[in-house]
Design brief:
The protein has about 575 residues and is of the alpha/beta class. The chain contains 25 helices and 19 strands. Strands 9-8-10-11-12-13 form a 6-stranded parallel sheet, sandwiched between helices. It has a 6-stranded parallel sheet with strand order 16-15-14-17-18-19, sandwiched between helices. Helix 5 crosses helix 7. The longest helix is centred in the last third of the chain and has 24 residues. The two termini are about 25 Å apart. The N terminus is likely disordered.
Length: about 575
């Protein structure tokens, strides 16, 4: 209960204005900051918010400015178990002998509460916790718990009451209750609407838009757990679940099941981070090929759950886009040039890894392994040795992502080139102009809005090309569902998972190799009736089996049967 199970280093950075910043150097190479001058301003505002006539209890000492102001006004308590931080700041050294400052380093919230209440009683004051930013993320088992204990009247066993309220029976109500860890990621809109149409009671906690959870996220989640009493927590791609496993451990202690729906490579998100596979965690994956690796990581419940279509958004009969976006053949998607370049910069490979990454990516594209590291160990042992010598997990994951995105870039550009001889439109990022050969019949368009534009774009293109990301060994992407749902025709590459969802030749048109694309596009342009037949058959199948309501029904059933 004392810490996150991971160690960090802290450094003090002197600022030009004479102040300083404190930075937390995480083991994964990332950095958290107390924001220097802005942090001082925050601490001054926090000191002003301290209730008059109560004992201010600082949950973390921060940069020391808040403590400095409060200690000049009267007694103050500080709960701070972050030795690296207060050693770097010098705050402990400044205030450890101050007669009106009680400093508590004890990482146990119960013992810390006892000492603070005794200090408060001696002065006939009531404790008033003041939450310092960043500290709840450093130790969610200490600071949020201590804040909750101090907020209750003295004499009440706050911890026992909290756990009694938190460990309530699940799946006992007439309606299922889901707490959604929300994010701007595209799938959340579909999940919200599907849950609402199924009559599921839902509340949300905002995770934040960055790669790390926002300040206050854990406290907000705990408040929602107590007030809403969800049957389980739902997230996408493990958003909101820290890689160190602190949140997963907290949910396990709460006896609160977690459902995580992966629609991107679980390997690139979870791999190399222990402590995430918990008995109360269910993983749903869009790619069946990733199921066995997830089970081997220790996840007890792994369920194949493909993507789907939102038939309210992707529906026929919408006003078509402008004429320049109507064509005989078309493709919508990223060239992957920038994504591959970003991952190259993040991985910073040298030697063999830098020289041969395109060759390795090509091999990965054709390999059976879902994890690039496994592919390297089998097919390129010398490169695998260099890969393992990369200094940290973040660099290794970035290199694996580089191979995945580079494989996708090469495959996608090879496929899309095959439609440039037709009256064609390609919508995506600006790098397509450098990837595709000039052609008088080819028009390039900027990115289209998924919800506003694509339901009107697909029906205006006679043959919509789909070429699947190389991160997906068997799964299909959302275009396979979206295009026919709105009345468009799609020509897609063959994936083993496709045949479990549609019947090739009767419900969808499939190519086995990029060299087949040109002839197949020409064939379907010359056979409009066949296009219409396939489109209608695919749309009928989508509406019957491949909507997000159907997917969420499957997810809810699995959670109820395993955790009810």
């Amino acid at each position: 209960m004392a810490d996150l199970g991971w160690k960090y280093r802290a450094e003090r950075v002197e600022m030009e204005d004479g102040g300083f910043d404190l930075r937390v150097l995480r083991p994964d190479g990332k950095t958290w900051s107390l924001w220097g001058r802005r942090g001082v301003d925050r601490e001054e505002a926090l000191a002003k918010s301290s209730p008059v006539g109560q004992l201010p209890v600082l949950l973390g000492s921060g940069l020391g400015r808040c403590l400095e102001l409060l200690a000049g006004q009267g007694p103050v308590a500080v709960a701070d178990a972050e030795t690296p931080l207060f050693d770097a700041s010098g705050v402990w050294e400044r205030f450890r002998n101050h007669p009106e400052v009680l400093w508590i380093e004890d990482p146990d919230p119960e013992r810390a509460e006892t000492k603070i209440r005794a200090f408060a009683r001696e002065r006939n004051l009531r404790p008033a916790p003041l939450k310092m930013p960043l500290y709840p993320r450093l130790n969610p088992a200490l600071y949020p718990t201590l804040a909750a204990r101090l907020a209750r009247p003295e004499g009440m066993d706050a911890e026992a009451l909290f756990w009694r309220r938190a460990r309530y029976p699940k799946f006992k109500g007439e309606k299922t209750r889901v707490l959604l860890l929300s994010s701007p990621y595209f799938l959340y809109r579909e999940i919200r609407q599907a849950l609402a149409s199924l009559g599921v009671l839902t509340q949300e906690v905002d995770v934040g838009a960055g790669s790390t959870m926002r300040p206050g996220f854990v406290e907000d989640m705990l408040r929602r757990v107590l007030s809403f009493r969800p049957d389980f927590v739902l997230t996408v791609n493990h958003l909101g679940v820290d890689r160190e496993g602190a949140l997963a451990e907290l949910l396990e202690k709460l006896s609160l099941p977690l459902a995580s729906w992966f629609v991107d490579s679980p390997h690139l998100i979870l791999h190399r981070y222990p402590g995430l596979a918990r008995p109360n965690t269910a993983v749903f994956t869009w790619d069946e090929e990733t199921a066995d690796p997830l089970r081997k990581q220790g996840f007890p419940l792994v369920v194949h759950l493909p993507l789907a279509a939102d038939a309210r958004v992707f529906r026929p009969g919408l006003k078509p886009l402008r004429k320049t976006l109507r064509a005989d053949a078309g493709f919508v998607g990223d060239s992957m040039v920038a994504k591959a370049a970003e991952r190259f910069a993040d991985a910073a490979p040298t030697g063999l890894l830098a020289r041969d990454y395109r060759k390795l990516a090509q091999g990965l594209s054709e390999a059976p392994e879902t994890a690039p590291a496994d592919f390297l160990r089998r097919a390129f042992p010398e490169h695998a040795k260099a890969f393992e010598e990369l200094p940290n997990n973040e660099r290794k994951l970035s290199y694996e992502a580089l191979l995945t995105w580079e494989a996708t870039r090469a495959y996608r550009s090879g496929c899309v080139r095959k439609i440039t001889a037709f009256d064609a439109v390609v919508a995506g990022d600006e790098h397509w102009k450098d990837v595709l050969p000039p052609s008088p019949s080819l028009r390039l368009a900027p990115r289209l809005d998924y919800y506003r534009d694509l339901p009107r774009f697909y029906p205006g293109v006679k043959v919509n090309l789909n070429c699947t990301s190389r991160q997906m060994k068997s799964a299909v992407n959302q275009r396979v569902f979206d295009v026919p749902a709105c009345g468009g025709f799609v020509l897609t590459d063959r994936q083993t998972g496709l045949e479990r969802l549609f019947e090739p030749g009767k419900e969808t048109a499939v190519f086995d190799h990029p060299e087949e694309i040109t002839d197949m596009v020409r064939h379907y342009l010359n056979h409009e009736a066949e296009r219409r037949r396939l489109t209608q058959a695919a749309r009928t199948r989508v509406l019957a089996e491949h909507t997000y309501e159907r997917r969420l029904e499957q997810l809810l059933s699995a959670m109820r049967s395993n955790f009810g």
